[in-house]
Amino acid sequence: MSVPGRAAELAAAVLAHPGVESLDGGPFGTVASYLVGERVVGVRIGTGGEPVELAVVARLGAPATPLPRLAEELGAVVRGLLGPVAVEITFSDVVTASSTGS
What we know:
Helix content is 28%, strand content 33%. By secondary structure, it is of the alpha+beta class. Helix 2 (67-82) links the parallel strand 5 (52-60) and strand 6.
């Protein structure tokens, strides 16, 4: 599978992290991957030397994961699937367990 074709797989792996509430399109919906018949919002796999971009809504609960540590963990998820790539993460919003109904 091509690297851009792995966007859906990467989105599922990011959403599986307990510190991620959802994926987001980021500013103006620009963080997205366009595949044949599909748009994966919140994940943009760059080409050439471009970084992988994630835009996520973080979930803070008890115990809360500090955002810098969450960014490191999500970077590790990306590199676990795609190898040694640069990763840029945007936290579009933060919600608490009480605001999600959890």
